[in-house]
Amino acid sequence: MTVHGLFDNTTNLLAKVMALRSRKAEVIAGNIANIDTPGYKARNFTFIDQLQKALGEETSLPLMRTHEHHLPDRQSISEIQPVVEEREASLAGFDRNTVDLDHEMAELAENNLVYGAAVEMLRKKISVLKNAIVEGGK
Fold first, then answer.
1. How far apart are CA 42 and CA 102, in angstroms?
2. C-alpha span between 78 and 74 (Å, rounded)
3. Phi then psi for 118, rounded to 5 degrees?
4. Does pLDDT of 4 surpass 60?
5. Mean pLDDT in the chain?
């Protein structure tokens, strides 16, 4: 018996979101760790636009594929590549450091909340799968 197809798209999506949120927490922790480093530029970790595009939830009009050899407009969830870039800061300290602790803590709280929600949803999906396995054997 193979396990191919055992996990559905939602499970794979939740696993990807958890991996991306974990990486975002690392970037935020790096920003906080460098709050006293002169000249350090705070970094952003973005992937939401790519995730929405992969899910077909774009806010802009979708491109139309008019030829079979055109590249597909939509990427798969596994192809999402997060972007880490320096944040544009309006206020830099006298040492040119752009880390804003209040902003970092708010980002960390939001990230932890979404990560926890993804963990809970994945836990429930695994619980349903486990229940199906246990009850299916009776």
1. 13
2. 12
3. -65, -40
4. no
5. 85
